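Now for one protein, fold included:
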Amino acid sequence: MMESPNQVQFVLNQSMSSAPGTAFNYNTGASHLLSAMIQKNIGINLKEYAKEKLFGPLGITNFQWAADKQGVSDGGTGLQLIPEDMAKIGYLYANNGLINGKQVIPAKWVSESTTMTNTNGFKYGYQWWGGLDYFYASGSYGQGIFVSPEKNLVVVMTSDISDTDPKIETNKLFSRIKSAAVSEQALPVNSEGNQQMKEQVRLASSSKMPTPQLPAIANEISGRTYMVKKNNAGLNFSAFTLNFSNKSDVAVFKKTLGAEIVDISVGLDNEYLETGNYKAKGYWDGDAFIINQHYVMPDSHTPYDSMIKFLFDEMEGKLEIEALSGIKSQKIVVDIISK
């Protein structure tokens, strides 16, 4: 569906697996149709409507929302929010659509949309999933907004779970958190504790460290172009160059993607550097140079994390790629040679 020239038409062209209203089967395509229906009815896409009616009143400005080729906001994927803003949406629903004295969403809609129907072992409302006594918004790989009206509790999770069922894992975790909330009263104000927490957040917000001395091999391999001998491992590049300078805390990873050459800046001071859709940082471990890379797909805004380990031995060596996904990783080793 995501690769089709017209996602809405693609969904409408699919045959029905069962009569409407007789079976529950969540799918992204049906959610995308909801977005298309809203856009057709109000004249603007869901992203612009949400900016005006929801994100604006909640003070949410830092977000991305992908759209299909017809400009229809993705209905079942493609929305990126920071955890703090996810929590605002959960808090809004925990308070029956009211925030700062303003009724952003009708209380009746909050109630209707979170009233669950049991179908095939699932509890589902209007784009909300249900637990025992709570409801939650479920995203890819375990991203979620969990709301317990009984406990007046909102929990936000960001994760990358792919080797097991993310819904099971995140619901287990939320249940533990919810059971730990034993008091119905807010904790008393702790000014000293709040100040200590703010200081810890400040210290943690900057990961920058002094740039270590480059090893001798860095100067030896810097500027050399390496070819991948046999690309049977599914690599998306056939050649690469690493550039280092003793006077800089930035390295450059230049890779050949077909006819395109991409230069990616790599932070050597433990901080990610951004180059287009890439963020990267790297470090030396003996004679091996390791790059941690974060990439966001331009169309779907889907994030991917990977670790590339370059092992050099007298200008020829091995290239080890470790694809990271949650707690599971896959290692691939290919031969490289300088030219």
